[in-house]
Amino acid sequence: MSYTSTLGGERHRFDSLARLLAAASPERSGDHLAGLAATSARQRVAARWALAEVPLTTFLTEPLIPYESDDVTRLILDTHDTAAFTPVAGLTVGEFREWLLTADPPALTAVAPGLTPEMVAAVSKLMGNADLVAVARKVRVVTGFRSTIGLPGRLATRLQPNHPTDDPAGVAAALLDGLLLGSGDAVIGINPATDSPKAVRELLELLDGVIRRYAIPTQSCVLCHVTTSVDLMERGAPVDLVFQSIAGTQAANASFGVTLGLLDEAYEAALKLERGTVGRNVMYFETGQGAALSADAHHGVDQQTVEARAYAVARRYDPLLVNTVVGFIGPEYLYDGRQILRAALEDHFCGKLLGLPMGLDICYTNHADADDDDVATMLTMLGVAGASFVICTPGGDDIMLNYQSASYHDALYLREVLGLRPAPEFETWLESIGLLDERGGIREVGSHALTAIGRELAA
Q1: Beta strand pairing status for 364-365 and 403-404?
Q2: Beta-sheet pairing, 242-245 with 321-325
Q3: I want to staple 185 with a disulfide (CB 3.0 to 4.6 A). Which of 54, 118, 156, 262 is the partner?
Q4: Residues 419, 425: contact at Cβ < 8 Å?
Q5: CA neighbor of 334 nearest in space, from 285, 367, 382
């Protein structure tokens, strides 16, 4: 099936729905690398004009990747909720944009199970940055394990105390730094330097010991491969959340060594541990635009649409946390700060609209055309858009993964200027140890209360 539009007297033809979506995408280096990007601004506008007229039901009858050869396609279509889809079933993509901008929060929550990733990716291509912020801000997705994530007026953080050699003293120093700056209510999450079960278990026991000793209402996660988590759960290791990087096609997930069946197994094993206190959301997923393309597993679909398909995989497991590592893959896929910002807003919008607790690693690699001001801009816009959590590293510099991200101080800035607070359970804990001042802010470093707490935590 082909799609056409006429713009300025010139007729444009797009030979497939996948080609139409790719041409309608905002410009990004990854789509140029794949040979999928629009050839001109005029063609991009023509593609959006044609896309606006496509009925949403087309995405149910014309899969971008064949049903027979891709288990993510089968997951998307087999789990589609036709009843939830009913309020928008008669709309085109353009009409759906108007509906989203005027819908109230309960309507957005109710329609989520009836939306497919391709639908939300398509409508995002017709929306400006302000549209993406306005709609995402209305959507609330609340999850829980030992802390409650996603409540209105709250911003949680992942405390990321990575170390190049997984040295316990180095991890503990970064952990202490983050806790004393009010970070860690979403998760204390370490990217291990190796996937060795022994090393991972030692890190898990370190984090579990700190959480238990100081009764911190949060959860830990060592971001190892899912097979390592399954093995360690069987051996009695203190696994709170099961982590896995995922993508939007069967072939891309295979490049990560992952199948839906394996994720099913891990999910069921984690549920049986019953380690949560306020909820049973036990999974943590990371995604990122360009992952499928880098594995040559995108099937001719643009990188933003493939990214949205990964959210269907995440949605299957009712996760506590999902975040896009938006600038981590590099400038081959998102060239500069402008492209990274656009991708961040798209990913957050699409994930929230599909019912996921979306957060972000607002980051860039050192060879990208971006800087700390881009991080500040992205952080502010995503805070306004209602991101559930952000990832924070000491000084905004991850010394193990060698990339730049938000810092613990950046999260404090965002909470202050937007009037946001930590997760409620974590806020109560901060108050109980004297870290919050009378305005709800973190006490100055060097204060008597902080000095005493620091000595105790470092003991």
Answers
A1: antiparallel
A2: unpaired
A3: 156
A4: no
A5: 367
Residue 454, token pair as written in the block: 């620091």
Contacts of residue 432, Cβ cutoff 8 Å, sequence gap at least 6: none
Please give the structure tokens belonging to residue 31. Answer: 């789509």
Strand order, beta sheet including 403-404: 364-365, 403-404, 397-398
pLDDT bracket for residue 256 (50, 70, 90): very high
Question: pLDDT value at position 183?
Answer: 96
Measured from the Cβ of residue 189, the count of other Cβ atoms closer than 10 Å reads 25
Strands annotated E in 246-356: 283-287, 321-325
**Considering only CA atoms, which of 375, 380, 409, 412 is closest in space to residue 394?**
409
Cα separation, 97 vs 458, in Å, equals: 52
Pair type for strands 187-190 and 220-222: parallel
Q: What are the residue ranges of helices labelled H in 290-331?
A: 291-294, 303-315
Answer yes or no: are the C-beta atoms of 408 and 173 closer than 8 Å.
no
Q: How confident is the model at residue 234 (pLDDT cuts 50, 70, 90)?
A: very high
Q: How confident is the model at residue 66 (pLDDT cuts 50, 70, 90)?
A: very high
**Amino acid identity of 333?**
Y
